[in-house]
Design a protein that fits this description.
By secondary structure, the protein is mainly alpha-helical. 62% of the residues lie in helices and 9% in strands. A hairpin with a 2-residue loop joins strand 2 and strand 3. Helix 1 runs antiparallel to helix 2 and helix 2 crosses helix 3. It is globular, with a radius of gyration of 20 Å. The model has no long low-confidence stretch (mean pLDDT 86).
Length: 170
Amino acid sequence: MPVETLLSPPWWRVAIALIVVPLIASFAYALYSPLYQGLPDMTERVIRTTQAVALIGAYPPTAVLGIPLLFYFRRRVWPSLANCAMVGAFVATFPWMCLVAFFGSDEAYTGDHITYQNGMMTWWGLLETLKFLAVTAVFGFAAGGLFWLMAAAGVKRQPVSETVPSKVFE
């Protein structure tokens, strides 16, 4: 029986996906939730939100978490749609989970509800945080799917003959 080896996608496709996918995900989030920043025009609000989300919430996690995970999983896990989507959700959500876990304010409000009081998160703050993390995970899940579509779609498993050693762990 032939042994299957895991081939990684071509590097040029991966590089293009690492550049384009965070920008598209930032634009999608900007359409979903544009910042106000005192700008009257909706187009300007979406453009500025895209810039802010890309520079703060998309490219740094991609560089710090996404690229090392790409190198780690490169020959260990098949680059399927589900795997790429789950890694995308993790890369998008993990930095925000760390910020919520380790940093908080003394007092904060959302509308008429107290989210932080005396340095502790309230139940309402927990609900708001979970809602934000769920939305972030959904956008990361979609970005991971888009990454798979751009970088790994069409990469096939190739059988290797018994005499040729497998290059799985190189």
